[in-house]
Amino acid sequence: MAIRVLLVDDQPLLRTGFRMILEAEQDIAVVGEAGDGLQALDQVRALQPDVVLMDIRMPRMDGVEATRQITGPERNGPAKVLVLTTFDLDEYVVEALRAGASGFLLKDAPAHELVQAIRVVAGGEAMLAPSITRRLLDKYATHLPSGEEPLPDALTTLTDREVEVLKLVARGLSNAEIAADLFVSETTVKTHVGHVLTKLGLRDRVQAAVYAYESGLVRPGAQ
C-alpha cells in the first residue's frame, strides 16, 4: 500500500515541486493539495491521507491550528502531520509540535530527506533531526526554564534508565542510536520509550523531546 500524502502550502509552485519529488517514489502517492488550513481540514476528511505535509504561514487558517484539529481528540482518520519550516518561523514550529505534529523539515531540504521524512512519519516514528532540533531550541532558549527551577513531579515517576532514554530522545537520537549509546537492545529502548510516554502522558517522542526541554531536564546547547 502506498503512503497517501496531502500537500498543504499556499504557494502552488512549491506544491508542484513536492508533488514531482514524491510521485517519483513507488511507495508514495500524492492524493491531494490544499492552499490553506481550512482546505486542508476538508481534504483530510475527504481523502484520509496518511501524512499531511503542512506549511505554517497560510491565509484563513495557519498550519498550527490546522495541525491541532487534524491530530486532536476529535480527529477523523489516521493522518500524521509533518511541518515544513524556514528558520525565520521557528517559534511557530514549537507551537506546531505542541499541537501534535510528528516532526518538521526544512523547506530547502534535499529531495531524499523529504522522501525519508514522509516514510518515517508514516511508519509512526518522529522526524526529529538532532541538528535542526538543537538549533531550534538553542534559538529559543530564553523562553525555556533557566535550570534553577525544580523539575516537574512527573519526572520522579521515571526510573534512572528512563530518564537517560528521555534525554537521548530529546537530542534527536533514534531507537537504534540510543540502543548503541546505552549498550542495550533496540527492543529494550522501545520498551523504555513506551514507559516514558505512558508515565508522562505524552503522545509520541516529539512531545517527549519538547517536554524534556520545557521541563528543564535538558538544556539547549548541552551535549
From TrEMBL:
Designated name of the protein: Response regulator transcription factor
UniProt keyword annotations, A-Z: DNA-binding, Phosphoprotein, Transcription, Transcription regulation
UniProt cross-references to CDD domains, sorted A to Z: LuxR_C_like (cd06170), REC_NarL-like (cd17535)
Residue ranges occupied by any Response regulatory domain in the UniProt entry: 4-122
Residue ranges of domain HTH luxR-type in the record: 151-216
Transmembrane segments: none
Modified residues (4-aspartylphosphate): 55
